Amino acid sequence: MALPVKRWFAIAFLASAIAISQRGASAADDWKIIKVSGSDYLSVDNISRFYGLPAGIAASGEKVEFDTVKNSLEFVSGSREVMINGARSWLCFPVIEHDGKYLVSRTDVAKTIEPLVRPYRVSNVGKVQTVVLDPGHGGYDRGQVSRFGYEKDFALDVARKLRPLLQAKGLRVIMTREGDYFVPLEVRAQIANAAHDSIFVSIHFNATNDDPNATGFEIFSFTPIGAPSTSDSAVAPSALSTQPGSTVDAQSMALSACIYHSLLGHLPEYDRGIKRARFVVLRLTKVPAVLIEGGFLTEQGECKLIAQKDWRAKLAHAISVGIESYRALGIKKQPPLLVADYRKQIKSSPTEFDVQDAELKEADTSLMELVGRSKFLPPQQSSTPRASSLESAPIVP
Ligand SMILES: [Zn+2]
C-alpha cells in the first residue's frame, strides 16, 4: 500500500492479516493504556496494529488532504481532525505527543474510531424498520436563506424525494412534518422514539456569516458523555449527564458513517466531516439519530446547486443508499461501502453539475409551488445573506 510519505513523518505499522483473523474475544488484551495527567490514552501504533490499518501522523498545522486512500487512519498532531477510511472525522480530544509517542484518547478509540472503522460490530446496529425523516425548520422558522429560497423548503423537498426511495427498499417512513409548519424539536424526537426499530434522519442546509466561501457536507451525531462537541473546545457541565441520545451514540456514529460515505461518494462536495453535537433532536432521540448538513446556502455555487431539484434528488438518492448501507450492517455484519467504493461504482457515469439559468428558474418555480410564492423573499431583497443568523453558532444546523 503506497502512502504519501512526504507529508507523513511517522508511519505506523500494518498488522498482518493473520494477526487480525486471530483476534477475537481477547481483543481488549491488545490495548496498552497509557495514563497522561490522569486520562487514558492509546498510542497510534497500538491503534494501527489493533485494527490492522496503516496509520500516519501529519504535522500540526499541515492540512490533511482529502484523498480516497481506503482503510487508513491519518491523524494530525495536536488536532482533533482525522481521516478515517477516506472521510474526514473529528475526534473528541486532540492527538497528543507524549514520550515520543502519539496518543489518542481512550474515549475516541471507543466512541469515534471503533464505530467508524468497525460499525458492523456495534451492538444492535442496522436494526431499522422505520426511518423518521425530519425536514429541518418549517413555518415561521425559515432556517437559513439563499436568494433561491429557504432552508425549510429545500429540506422538506429532499425528505419528500427520499421517502419513496426508502419505501421502495421496504422501509416504513414517517415524516416529522409534511408541510410548511413548525414542529417543536422535542416533538420531532418523540415521534422517532415512539416508532418501532426506528432511526432518525434530520435534513438541513448550512450557512455561515464568517466565510462566504465555506462549502461542503457535514453530518452530526450525539456527542459522547464527558466529551466536548466538535464546535466546542472544552467540556461543558451539561456534557456530564446521561441523555437519551447517549444510549445509542455508537449506533448513531455508525449511521453517520454510512450516510456520510455515501454522500461524499455520490456527490463531489467538500468533506467537512463526521462531527458531534448536542442538538436537541440528537440529545432527546433515543434511537440512532443523525443531522445532515447538505451544503451551504451562503456560498454562491452551492446555493445554486441546492436550488436545483435534480441536485436535491441526487442528495436524496445518496442518503437513501447510506441508510440502506446502515441496515445492511445488521444483516451482513461486514464493513460498509466507503467513499472510494462508491466513487468506483459511479465512475462509469460521471455526474454533471453545470448550472444553467433555465434550470435555476425551473427549480425556483417548483419550490414556490411547493409552499406558495408569498413565502419567498422577492429576489431584489434577498440577493445577500442576512447579516445575523437565526441560529447561534457560526456554522449552524
Ligand atoms: Zn437548519
Helix content: 25-40%
Which radius of gyration do the C-alpha atoms yield? 21 Å
**Strand arrangement, largest sheet?**
13-10-14-17-15-16
Regions with little confidence, pLDDT below 50 for 5+ residues: 1-26, 352-397
Strand content: 15-25%
Query: How many strands?
Result: 17
Q: Find the structural class using helix and strand composition.
A: alpha/beta
State the helix count: 11
**What is the N-to-C order of secondary-structure elements (H for helix, E for strand)?**
EHEEHEEEEEEHEEEHEHEEHEHEHHHH
User: What does the overall shape look like?
Assistant: globular
Instruction: List the ligand species.
Output: zinc ion
Q: For this entry, what is the oligomeric state of its chains?
A: single chain
The biggest beta sheet reads: 6 strands, mixed
| Mean pLDDT score | 83
Span of the ends, CA to CA: 38 Å
What would your notes on this structure say?
This protein is α/β, with parallel strands linked by helices and 397 residues long. 32% of the residues lie in helices and 20% in strands. The protein has helices at 17-22, 44-51, 106-117, 151-167, 185-194, 249-266, 280-283, 300-306, 309-332, 339-346, 357-371; strands spanning 10-11, 34-36, 39-43, 55-58, 73-76, 81-84, 87-90, 96-98, 101-105, 130-135, 145-146, 149-150, 172-175, 198-206, 217-222, 271-277, 289-296. The strands form four sheets. Strands 13-10-14-17-15-16 form a six-stranded mixed β-sheet, with helices on both faces. It has a five-stranded mixed β-sheet with strand order 1-4-5-6-7. β8 (96-98) and β9 (101-105) form a beta hairpin. It starts with 9 loop residues before the first strand and ends in a 26-residue tail after the last helix. The model is unreliable at 1-26 and 352-397 (pLDDT under 50). The chain binds zinc ion. Zinc ion (ZN) binds next to loops. Zinc ion (ZN) is lined by residues 136-137, 143, 151, 204, 397.
